[in-house]
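Record type: monomer structure entry
Structure origin: computed from sequence
Chain ID: A
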Amino acid sequence: MTWGPEVEEIARRRELALKMGGAEGIARQRERGKLTVRERIDAIADPGSFREFMTLAGSGTYENSELVDFTPKGAVDGFCSLDGRRAVVAAGDFTVRGGSGSAGGGGLGAEPSATRRALEARVPFVRMLDAAGGSVRGFEEMGRTYLPDGNSYSYLEVDLLQAVPVVSAVLGSVAGLPAVNACLSHFNVMVKDISQLFPGGPPVVKEALGYDITKEELGGEQIHVYESGVVDNLAETEQDAFAMVRRFLSYLPPNVWELPPRTEPNDPVDRRDESLLSAVSRDRRIPYDAHDIIDAVVDRKSFFEIAPFYGASRITGLARLNGYAVGVMANNPAHLGGTTDIAGGEKVMRLIQLCDTFHLPLISFADEPGFMVGLESEKRGIERAGARLVITTCESRMPWLTLVVGRLFGVAGQCQHRPSGMLRRYAWPSARWGSMHIQGGASAAYRREIDTAPDPDAKRAEIEARLEAIASPFRTAEATGQDIIDPRDSRPLLCEFVEEAQGVLRTQLGPNPTPYRP
């Protein structure tokens, strides 16, 4: 007597689970231009590496104790390898009741969730979101409603952010708690034309506010990638999104108890790019592309930009120097003159936290005119945003190098420096600094002299010329010892710094004392 019949029943139930929401649900998924959940897992995971858990969870229909039908839970979860590195993937299945959380699973004696397993195994966690959250259908099934208590689960999502890399891919219409989970991550991405994100969709908006709106107008990429900044990157296709996920994770360690992996160096440390000598024009009115400076210094083709369409006055991303992973940020003079506005400041704070959490040195290419001024900036609370950036800077610990390529003014310039920990500054001859710009500052500090002069414009020009004469970075170097370098020496010096930083980073392994906040 064997357990053969039961083993056959396992295989039968697994076969039923593979049908997902059935032919009709799968057809609707394809009509929307989307992959099924299992196609997505096959696309993101290394071939043959996916091992599903909780495969048999769902809702069975019985006749005389015999299973006659089975609806799997609205998600597929499991361990897999991503470019040879172990991870947990949790993927919503929209074909099963829109991926609703009420569609099977959970309850007394439930097995550990995907979140808990990633936390216990100390491996990266990847969400593939295509789910509508809770559904009122669940009320009818339970025969009652309930007091919201989602934080019984969400606290694990918060804990996860402090321990392992977390990535969210928005791959459809995502609402309710899954919409919040999209942001409980270190990086997220959505796909052009098929992804939308909101706490409540168009029917909820209609009921609450009385107006009609489409899913795309409410939460498409034009809202969240370009305006709100809720989503970092935009992918052209789902395969493109999966490539971004794998690339982002390639710069990070599997958890905070390990250092980021180093790749085989593919670029000479002593490479001196001639373009850097003229990268910043002597004519301050001529902008430059800061991406060109970044690409000329970091390992070739290693820069991965994060949130390129939001807060465009700041550039943020990940790169490598001599094979070591680093965080990179730069002012972007092609947008708002590189001024740090609230959106740009938010990007910078998230990058600082990411580097600090996962032990990456931070490299800053600074050309900072200051915080954004003006009425609109005041209405949005630029001072409070500036205070948060000061706090985030001062609380950080990871090794930090600031390369001053242009301006460095005011409190925003102050946020390119930290009074503790391993910090180094180099400046190019094109650098200028101070509490504020000479032009605007002269008009304020010498107002009486200018206003009472026979020729106010000539007086202002005379004062500005006098101040410009002492603004040379070499005057500062005489007094402070500030290192001013040939721009072509930037890469060798940055590679040297990152090599030295490894010893400091090894002493910082483990959870960051300052929690990560998305």
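Annotation 1: The chain has a mean pLDDT of 90.
Annotation 2: The longest helix spans residues 342-358.
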